[in-house]
Amino acid sequence: MKRTKKERQQLLCDTIEQNPFVTDEQLASQFGVSVQTIRLDRMELSIPELRERIKDVASRNYENEVKSLPLDEVIGEIIDIELDQRAISIFDVRTEHVFQRNGIARGHHLFAQANSLAVAVINDELALTVKSNVVFLKPVKLGDRVVTKALVRGQHNEKNRTYIDVVSTVNNSTVFKGEFEMYRTKGVGEENETSN
Amino acid sequence: MKRTKKERQQLLCDTIEQNPFVTDEQLASQFGVSVQTIRLDRMELSIPELRERIKDVASRNYENEVKSLPLDEVIGEIIDIELDQRAISIFDVRTEHVFQRNGIARGHHLFAQANSLAVAVINDELALTVKSNVVFLKPVKLGDRVVTKALVRGQHNEKNRTYIDVVSTVNNSTVFKGEFEMYRTKGVGEENETSN
């Protein structure tokens, strides 16, 4: 069943809204049209290209939002965050992140992106990793853009713990998963002690 | 019960042989004597000081020994290795490895040292991390020397897997533990394909 142009453009809007990181190539293959058609659709709808969409979200300032560490200590770039709820970062795999021999990203860089996002999402001045279970599902290659999402799964106020699930994807395919148990100084909803 | 000098010196030799990273301060406290006494004992026994002992092991060349990655890709310095059996590395925590705010070492650097040692110990041209469970037991601080030991715990030749336990210590106190499940291209004892 061929979609009308109007239907396709509506679907395009919805898809990009749900996943701002989708490429024109992925959209073309999903809708069974050419990449050129997608580009024309985007122009008609005034949707910027992927690179611009990413720059746009990335340029938003999270410096005052993240509590647990300075933003420049986050590995990857935070593009969305809701403290104690969820966070997203992107990380571009460059030469210095891969094994020289095979161009596969080294595990500790994926771990670093996930771990620092788990720290960043916590609404506390101090957050330390206690435990972590991680799985490397697919090799990540030089040039890949890793999109990592952290989701706060649970909380144990008496033990000062926050439990976070992290999933990293490349082109919507899961490459890495991690569970992080984090220590924090105060529970969610507890008041900050203010120093007057 | 006070030991004779001869007994103490014998014990000193044994202790340093078992743990070349023990400091004079630790030995003094262990034997209930002054640091000066330990230094004199070492001189009489011609045992170099800790710094020299470490330099000595570190200067040995493992370049031809490690198969799975070039030595400069190992995080930390390998000071002992027996392929498919065990390996030891040391890692000095410097400013670039700690959180600016509190001087605590960032988790991914400890992970990186452990993970790259788990890669290095494997006697194969390719070794990739599949899974990893890690625990951060004590904060590691700026200036700490982390001694990490990897021990090959098991092997599954059909699945091309090697299981490795890693323990990191600072001043003989455990700071980090990890289990690593590694993928390799061939099982232990299987022949390398030689290209003639």
Automatic annotation (TrEMBL), chains A, B:
The gene is fapR. InterPro entries: DeoR_HTH (IPR001034), HotDog_dom_sf (IPR029069), Transcription_factor_FapR (IPR017275), WH-like_DNA-bd_sf (IPR036388), WH_DNA-bd_sf (IPR036390). This is Transcription factor FapR. GO terms for biological process: fatty acid biosynthetic process; negative regulation of DNA-templated transcription; negative regulation of fatty acid biosynthetic process. Keywords: DNA-binding, Fatty acid biosynthesis, Fatty acid metabolism, Lipid biosynthesis, Lipid metabolism, Repressor, Transcription, Transcription regulation. Belongs to the FapR family. GO terms for molecular function: DNA binding; DNA-binding transcription factor activity. Gene3D superfamilies: Hotdog Thioesterase, Winged helix-like DNA-binding domain superfamily/Winged helix DNA-binding domain. Residues 8-50 form the HTH deoR-type domain.
